[in-house]
Amino acid sequence: MEFSEERAVARAYELLSVEEACKGQAQHLRIIKEKLEKETLTLSIIGQFKRGKSTLANAILGDDILPVGIVPITSAVTRVYYGPRSAEVHFFNGDIQPIQFEKLSEYISEQENSNNKLGVASVAIKTPSKFLKNGIEFVDTPGVGSFHKNNTEVAYQYMKESDGVIFLLSVDSPINEIEIEFLKATKEFASKFYFAVNKADLVSEVELAQYIGYCQGVLQQIMGMDTIPVKIFPVSAKTGAGIKELTSSVSKDLKKNAKAILKRSSILKLRDIIDDSINQLRFYWKAMNMEYKALDRAFAAIDEYIDVLKKESESMESDFEIKFNEIKIALSEKVKEIFGMEYVYEIEESSPFQRTMTKEEFQEKVELLLSDLRQTLDSILLYREDNAYLVVRRIGNINLLANRLREIKRQINRHLEENDG
Ligand SMILES: Nc1nc2c(ncn2[C@@H]2O[C@H](COP(=O)(O)OP(=O)(O)O)[C@@H](O)[C@H]2O)c(=O)[nH]1
Ligand SMILES: [Mg+2]
User: Fold this and answer.
1) What distance in angstroms lies between residue 167's CA and the mean position of ligand 2's atoms?
2) The CATH number of the domain where 234 resides is what?
3) Under 8 Å between Cβ of 283 and 21
4) What is the value of pTM for the model shown?
5) Is the CB of 23 under 6 A from ligand 1?
């Protein structure tokens, strides 16, 4: 049967979604699957800090919404969508707060929210820019290589979610190792690249041409021979020079090739999810082979923790949606700490206008959550009972699943080779 990206994604999802050990991976893959179905595409501006990413994003959108600055200013990812102007902050605990545009920098600037002490997961903005029509999620990322380590991590994490990227350089400093490494890593996840050189206003035309020639050589090597010559858009986000050319070229290309871009980026991401899943299965396998004494200790520790959470939840009086998510996060972290096993819950997003969960509902949900975890752990224990048949069958299932996932990965690699070669 001929290879189909949709089929590979669907098959992997089918396999992962029924495997307890791969909950988190299945959840991640579901998002990718939905994006592919709905043709929503994530386009990120990436590059080192101070290249002018946020200034460029504003210029492309034709709206000065993102804070820019002389010092590294973006500490959280900002996602921009089509719609009437509005903004909201998404916190790690699932809470969402609508905010005014003027207050944006309180959440996404390194100065006002240093080391992300506010726990901002991302900021979502809507603006009626033509560029965003057709389901584009446009992302401004904190720069890599900023001396704030947190920013580099955020940039890497979000790079993995991108389908297309605008890779931004600027004439005021040559392309460096950090950027080259980042670009190489991005190639493993994103399927479409647009290159731009910013701050063209700072140099003469001759110098600009020299800089672009030099970048072309470096980028060509990284991107591979099939992209000769690498197209680079010279722009000045400040004066607006070259912005129209870049914007309309990217817009046209995304419109025409959205499906192809998404197909390719989906299987690139799937490949990574498969690697994660196989690692996860190895962890699980390890738990099944844990020494009895160690296993007993681990269970005692988690039981103790479940009791603590139960007591804590009884004394909570408000903000139940948020508290519920916090309990989920705490549980996931504890399981990881004790078993070295990923146990990821979906964090439900709540709106501050819809705080409807009552205390009774809250306690009921907490109860369910805790008993669900108990059941999962009991099921591991069950396999550890002296029922050799069950243990062997479980190990057999894990191996079978790992093999099926490896086969999908082989198909992906073959397909990518055939199409790149
Ligand atoms: N001369 C010049 N400066 C620019 C240009 N674009 C951005 N800048 C400046 O570069 C600095 C960093 O910009 P910013 O957009 O915050 O960079 P980011 O960290 O990559 O998001 C700011 O001081 C901007 O004013 C440009 O095209 N020309
Ligand atoms: Mg920025």
Assistant:
1) 13
2) 3.40.50.300
3) yes
4) 0.83
5) no
